[in-house]
Amino acid sequence: MHDTLPPDLSNDSIKRETSHLQHIVFQSTWDKILNLTFTASKYPGDQVRYVRLFTWAQILAIPTMSLAIYIFSLVFYRLYLSPIAAFPGRYYKRIAEMHEIYGPVVRVTPEEIHVMEPSAYQQLFVTGAVRKTEAYPRFSSGTGFEDMTAISTDHDAHRRLRQPLDKLFAKQSILRIEPRVAIRTEKLCARLESYRQSGEEVNLSNAFSSLTTDTISSIIFQEPSDYLSDPDFNHSWYETLKMGTLSVSLFKHMPWITRWIGRPILQFIVSRVTRWTIWDEKARREIMLSRKRPSDESKTREETTILDHLVHSSLVERDLGNGGFARLAQLIQQAGAHNVSHTLSTITMYLLHDESKLEPLRAELDGIWRLHGSNLSTPSWTDLEKMPYLSACVTEGLRIFTDVCGTRMAIGAMNRTPRVFPHDDVEVCGWTVPRGRELLIILI
Hints:
Elements: H1 11-34, E1 37-39, E2 49-52, H2 56-81, H3 95-102, E3 105-109, E4 112-115, H4 121-124, H5 146-150, H6 155-166, H7 171-176, H8 178-198, H9 204-220, H10 235-246, H11 248-253, H12 256-261, H13 263-274, H14 276-292, H15 295-300, H16 306-311, H17 324-352, H18 355-374, H19 381-385, H20 388-405, E5 426-428, E6 431-433, E7 440-443
Parallel strand pairs: 4-7
Antiparallel strand pairs: 1-2, 3-4, 5-6
Helix pairs in contact: 8-9, 9-17, 14-17, 17-20
């Protein structure tokens, strides 16, 4: 006998048959497991071809079932397993009606608790020595300043960053810049007097916005704006800003929009539409000039600005994110301009609609103006601060504005303020708010 194999059992033939068998086994196994359809060639040189992996029904069923399972699990967790599941509240009720039904503490969203009890103020708003309080990250969503607020979420970080800024808004600092406020207030009064004499209507919202923008920009920049001189108080500018403010709620509740569009692209669009690049470029230019001045000169100049203070303060610019001091200046400007102007508009509207509230204020103001008129001087902030009815109107205006407009138009502190207690359970009106939860505590 020869040691050689028959022609049909040569090495090449064995390889071909083995390969063919492997294809058949592979096809049979996966066809049963995944219901896949193959075409397996009888010849080893041909390629195995996948005809269909899944049907369209199967493709659509997988994400649909996954979404349904996720929603069911989320609802179950929020209703029964969440640390605040025991708090009452129904999402389709108005908040005031919810308080009438359930009491001063209600749950208004899966993560937010609403408190309507004045006595709770002392329990919740405390100093760091009593209880550390952290910021609520979602609170700043949609404002465009998420990068600035994210660095101060922690209690200690916020305190460290805020301390150099406290000097800017101390009473002595306010008294020093009072002449800048007075000049622009007198300019607004002159404009309103011209409207009164001509009988023309005036948009007080835009007028107050021009006043506050010009005032805060005079505190931040060496070259402030002059919107009070604009014939219509820069109406188009404020309409654009109003639309941007109204979009905050959209981006707050649907932050995925900014991720989908891309934050750099979105910031580019917003800056072009709202002309914020004007202020950004001005801030960067003045920061460079301030750095060239000695520290002592910047502090003793009569027209010292916030940018001067920031540049020569203990703050480290890189700690403020990519925007640095210029970005922080924009944040201060928005807070100082729009919150104050909307509060003034709210107070004016309520007083004009209620003559019984307006008359006592007029009488009090007439009295102090007659007193100073005889001395050929105007009342100072210190004088006005002593007037009880005027102070009450301002305080009530802040309360009403926060309640009525807080969730719609306000930015920053004028919005309903969240509180997160990372280390302590807090007793509120007989309820225990668990520690470490990102909860929104709202006071009316």
